[in-house]
Amino acid sequence: MMLFVLALFCCLPCSKAAEVITPYSDYKFAVEGESVTLSCSYTGSVRALHWYRQYAGSSPKFLILESYGAVTKADPPIAGVSIQNRKDNSSVDLKISSAAVTDSALYYCALEPTVRGNPQHAVQKAV
Fold first, then answer.
1. What is the DSSP letter of 78?
2. What is the pLDDT of residues 9-47, one digit of tens each?
3. Nearest-angstrom CA–CA distance, 119 and 127
4. Parallel, antiparallel or unpaired: strands 106-110 and 48-54
5. Most Cβ neighbours (<10 Å): which of 42, 61, 62, 89?
6. Which domains are assigned to the chain?
7. What's the chain's average pLDDT?
8. Could you tell me the keywords of this UniProt record (predicted)?
């Protein structure tokens, strides 16, 4: 059994000051093989909720987004990753089923895309 850490950050929208997204916690410990849920709360009129993962020394990579009830996954999709927009309490969850040590990374929740063009390709580093 191996214990590892998932760090969570948020990206604030660039254009709409009334919309804010905030992680529930800065990091999460997980045991290999367990399901892990990372959560962010948001305010405002949200159109899309994005999740990205960044490994040390690499740029953030698009994982998944939910927009108006439709889910768009990375291409190719990341196995075991799902998203849930809990509108009743204005939060969005990223669920990693059967977590592995390779899932240890920084995770970003965002209201606006942090990439240019197709979210699965070109990456712009979030500030």
1. P
2. 544 444 445 678 888 888 888 889 999 999 999 988 788
3. 17
4. antiparallel
5. 62
6. 3-110 (2.60.40.10)
7. 79
8. Adaptive immunity, Immunity, Immunoglobulin domain, Receptor, Signal, T cell receptor
